[in-house]
UniProtKB/TrEMBL annotation:
Keywords: Oxidoreductase. It comes from the Eukaryota. InterPro entries: NAD(P)-bd_dom_sf, SDR_fam. The keyword Iron-sulfur does not apply. Belongs to the short-chain dehydrogenases/reductases (SDR) family. This is Short-chain dehydrogenase/reductase family protein. It holds the Pfam family adh_short. Gene3D superfamilies: NAD(P)-binding Rossmann-like Domain. One of its GO terms (molecular function) is oxidoreductase activity. SUPFAM superfamilies: NAD(P)-binding Rossmann-fold domains.
Length: 351
């Protein structure tokens, strides 16, 4: 058997998927946040080439249908299951999880048996307004979408993941973090447990929510005692801005995704010069393509070299634990975050 290739900055999701095609074949995968021209869409598109079934999710049914149509137009033989899911709503999460858990028996047996093998937490909310907005469940919106919702979804779908384990395969959960997780001081436990408008900063909250992903990968791997391998990652060295001055904080690598088409985000990006007045990626910045940005997600989900590295943090499709901030590596904070989140959802997440 030939040696596996070394992935790099410019490796694409399709290239990673092609390398691990045999590992992907027959697997059932759920990817959250799969709107067209986003990282989740690209992840789902390339995995669908080989997977038995890819469940795509989104809170907007029209966009979800468009993603399904676009993937099937490219390859009509792929199996896609669109699942309506709003990660900011506990009720929506419970309804979606119940739908997935019911996908078995004669009607769906050609797609999904009693389990699936990979859960990819790609969806995220990004603060584009300075205003504080709680969800109907009383959680700050970014924390709800980026952390609490994925936690509840993982808890409800864990039995299906656990059922997929074999002597030679351990199911995986993948959390998308961001280079921004290192900009702040870590999880804001006060805002998470006692959300309030006073002193609220949307950008700092985004950084804080992204610091939860590495902690969850560490803690889920530990608590499952080898039954689930969890990983976190940064898709690219992204561009982030101060909401006070809209000035550039870092300019390493930028990925042009659908989020930049948001009117507020687009205006900010144009103001910094990251986008041209026409809304196109500016020259001179080290942009990653969408295909390159999704590569690390595919690697985290299927690279067999990660089998004995549960809890690892990835960048550019390689293990990069040195890029994980200290506050997102702390086992005490990981345990505290898990316990606090159990209280928020009102349920224990045990194995």
């Amino acid at each position: 058997m030939s040696a596996l290739p070394t992935f790099s900055f410019h490796t694409t999701a399709e290239e990673v998927a092609d390398v691990f095609a045999n590992e992907i074949r027959g697997k059932n995968v759920l990817v959250t946040g799969t709107s067209l021209n986003g990282l989740g869409f690209e992840t789902a598109r390339v995995l669908a080439k080989y997977a038995n079934l890819v469940i795509i999710t989104g809170y907007n049914q029209e966009r979800l249908k468009l993603s399904e149509y676009t993937i099937k137009k490219e390859n009509p033989a792929v199996k896609i299951y669109p699942l309506t899911l709003d990660l900011s709503s506990f009720a929506s999460i419970r309804k979606a999880a119940a739908e997935v858990n019911a996908l078995e028996g004669p009607l769906h047996s050609k797609w999904l048996s009693v389990q699936f093998q990979v859960l990819i937490h790609n969806a995220a909310a990004f603060g584009t307004s300075a205003s504080f907005t709680p969800t109907i469940d009383g959680v700050e919106t970014q924390y709800a979408t980026n952390h609490v919702g994925p936690f509840l979804l993982s808890k409800l779908l864990a039995p299906k993941l656990l059922a997929s384990a074999t002597a030679g395969y351990t199911p995986r959960v993948v959390y998308l973090s961001s280079v921004a997780h290192g900009y702040g001081t870590g999880v804001d436990f006060d805002l998470l447990t006692n959300p309030k408008a006073e002193g609220y900063d949307a950008f700092k909250t985004y950084w804080a929510t992204k610091s939860t992903a590495p902690l969850m990968a560490i803690e889920l791997s530990k608590r499952s005692k080898g039954k689930i391998n969890a990983f976190s990652l940064e898709p690219g060295r992204e561009l982030f801005l101060s909401n006070s001055y809209f000035r550039l904080l870092t300019c390493e690598t930028v990925i042009f995704t659908a989020s930049m088409e948001n009117e507020v985000v687009s205006t900010i990006m144009k103001g910094t010069g990251a986008l041209t007045p026409e809304g196109k990626p500016a020259e001179g910045l080290p942009w990653k393509t969408l295909a390159e940005g999704a590569a690390t997600t595919v690697a985290a989900a299927f690279d067999t070299r990660l089998n004995d590295q549960a809890g690892a943090y990835l960048a550019d499709s390689n293990v990069a634990n040195d890029k994980r901030a200290a506050h997102s590596s702390d086992p005490d904070d990981a345990e505290r975050l898990w316990t606090v989140t159990e209280k928020i959802i009102g349920e224990k997440f045990t194995f």
